[in-house]
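Before anything else, study the sequence and fold tokens given here and see whether the fold suits the sequence. Record follows:
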Amino acid sequence: MSEIRIWVHVLEWGIAQNSELPSDVANYSKDDFNILKNTLQQCIPFIKFYDLTSKEFHNKILPYKRIFPKEMYKDLLIFYLDQSESNNKSSDDSDSRITREINLRTVDLKIITYQHIELISIN
């Protein structure tokens, strides 16, 4: 499964957990973004955002920029804006950066198991 499909499924799951969220992200308030951020905060580090295309980043990540940790979003933005860096950056670099942000002992999910987390982080 592609990384963008994983992100879309995780995002849809997070929205489904909060039925009060508007269906259109353009109508989200600051509180709506915070609700979604709190729901997805333990899932976000497992998505390999550096494996997306620029178009996927623009269409599927930018609208939700408020739910990302500031430093992570800044790094992603720099990565997608600086084409020379994206050509030189290996997948291993992004994996190690994301892995450093993850502390599996803090993950407390009821629907996604550790096996799911490992599958998402490996693929």
